[in-house]
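User: Could you write out the 3D structure of this protein bound to fe (ii) ion? I've included everything you need below.
Assistant: Certainly. Input first, then the structure.
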Amino acid sequence: MAIFQVASDFTHVQLISPTNGRGEPGMNVTRPFSFEMPTRIEYGMGVVKNLPAEVSRLGVRKVMVVTDEGVREALADDAVIRPLKEAGTDALVFDGVEPNPKDRNVEEGASIAREYGAEALVALGGGSPIDCAKAIAVLVSHGGDKIKKYEGKTAVTRPVLPWIAVPTTAGTGSEVTFSSVITDTEAKYKMTVKSPLMAAKVALVDPELTFTVPAFVTASTGVDALTHAIEAYTVTCSEPISDAVALQAISLISRSLRDAVGDGRNAEARDGMMMGSLLAGIAFSHSDVGSVHCMAEALGGIYDLPHGVCNAILLPYVMEYNMEYCLERYARVARAMGVGEDAASAIAAVQALCRDVGLPALNTLGIRESDLDMLAEMSARNISTESNPRPMTKEDYLEVFRRAMET
Ligand SMILES: [Fe+2]
């Protein structure tokens, strides 16, 4: 496993060590990896106006817009529906996506899309509508009425219904990732459906769409993006392209988040967050996330808590647990954040950032002590546990949950 030194101005990447901080001996060469980026990205203030032209490039006349009630009320008509209809495209809105999107939302959306004869989808919203749209695209193109059938990394075998991503929060990065995280409502856990075949055709990434996102949502989604970047940079399967992208994401997010939370109309801060979130999405979709996400997904599955809040609560504690395996990498995180030269400074800076943007502590969220054992078990079973830089058993998870609860 190779370590790469990224220059402080991010202009070059240089191999400096044969390990990724785990202390494993190895040859001083890059291990084989592949990097695929099937989604075309159109980035910038106002790019959402290109949506009708992008739909027409797909050669389709009937689209279903997948969103949630809040986004529909706030901006769907002006930003998406009216422009599409004015351009002669038939557009139906499905706004039945719940937070932590549920299997029932995917199945209802797929049934409506089939009945309507949707030729493409437009995913408009934060991570929930975008992940739901991806799963609807799988179900419509692959058949069946249960998304559970497509859980895992191998069940999606051919191109899915084409879809365009229009993110309205800076956090998930789902516009460029290949996975959809859906809550299995029967088993109460979050399943993942993953394949590069699920990638959006185009992502219209417009920071202006985030100007009206409330401060708390800005904070929690922003820390989700920071978690993606830090985990992508430190997991065992990290590689040099995602490393470089992740470090730039860490730099942008850590210098923009407080300002974006403080003043939603601060264009520079919103731009920094949107780009940071996009880059973090590219990074973790090509490496992985680690134990923070394993724990956050367990919490989200059982308690239906916002994903970003769960990450924010756990990130510093997992970083503490990982620290001895990540001394060099966390030191580079500290440098990217502009807070110092050592691993401990990175952890302290992450803690301070979460506190400054108003994110709560774990023991304020009504988590039952009696559930911790089950949450630790679910976290250990999550496939991304394997990617965490320090091996983590169910007992280790339990200890980290307890530490987070005590503070
Ligand atoms: Fe996440």
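Residues 316 and 352 are 10 Å apart (CA to CA).
User: Perfect, thank you.
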